[in-house]
Amino acid sequence: MVSPRLFLLALCLCCVQTRHFCRLTNITISAEKEECPTCITLTTSVCTGYCLTKESVYKSARLSMYQHVCTYGKIEYHSVKLQGCPKGVDPNYTFPVAISCECNRCRMDYTDCALQSIRPDFCS
């Protein structure tokens, strides 16, 4: 039989470790276009958190090394209409909505893997 203290310790460690792993979270972003005079904020879901990584002891130029990042597993795109856009300018602003997350290579075609960026709810 497992002692209650040992079980509680294992449960706490499990909760602490998984709390920061790759997961969905809601954030506020800004929606704007250079040609349109308005900037609105909206809420969307994104992937955030940490992924387990390994550092090889043996280093070689022939050995391809990469680190997994928290990225989209499944994604949908939604659109909102910006008000006040001049005639001839598409008023639709399209943004990603994360449906699921996974630890994988950074997909530069639709993911910003930079260490720092401006706040996502910043209007310029």
Explain what you see.
- The chain has 124 residues and is mostly beta strands.
- The chain has one domain (20-55, 63-123): Cystine Knot Cytokines, subunit B, CATH 2.10.90.10.
- Helices cover 12% and strands 37% of the residues.
- It has one helix at residues 4-18, and strands at 23-32, 39-48, 69-81, 92-104.
- The strands form 2 sheets. Strands 1-2 form a two-stranded antiparallel ribbon.
CATH homologous superfamily descriptor:
Cystine-knot cytokines
> Which structural class is indicated by helix and strand composition?
mainly beta
In CATH terms, what is the architecture? Ribbon
Q: Give helix and strand order, one letter per element, not per position.
A: HEEEE
Radius of gyration: 21 Å
Mean model confidence by pLDDT: 77
Name the overall outline.
elongated
Tell me the layout of helices and strands:
Blueprint: H1 4-18, E1 23-32, E2 39-48, E3 69-81, E4 92-104
Antiparallel strand pairs: 1-2, 3-4
Which key terms come to mind for this protein?
two-stranded antiparallel sheet; 1 helix; single chain; Cystine Knot Cytokines, subunit B; disordered N terminus; 124 residues; mainly beta
Short description:
With 124 residues, the chain is mainly beta. Helix content is 12%, strand content 37%.
